[in-house]
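Example record for the data management plan.
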Amino acid sequence: MKLRDIAHSRTGDKGDLCNISVIAYRPEDYALLCEAVTAARVKAHFADIVQGEILRYELPGLAALNFVLKDALGGGVTRSLRLDAHGKSLSSRLLDLEIPSPDDGS
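Corresponding structural encoding:
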């Protein structure tokens, strides 16, 4: 299943940093987020875009994960030649990440 099936996102961008929060629709899906959406998986998912490291912060009280993507915006939104280098585009791409279904483990 897609990450978007159990979560939504909020984003921000500043300079060449992108901040993406992934928030579970239901608190009971937070454990699956923690297991399936690691910094390494996010880095692999954005391998063609993000040049720097990716940091993950866990926010259990919000049933959310926050990712900080360094060197992710081609120099910054106002400096980049990318068509749409804003965080919103990257969050939509992250929500396309395939994760195991909690029902069948696939």
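Summary line stored alongside the record: Strands lie at 7-14, 17-24, 54-59, 64-69.
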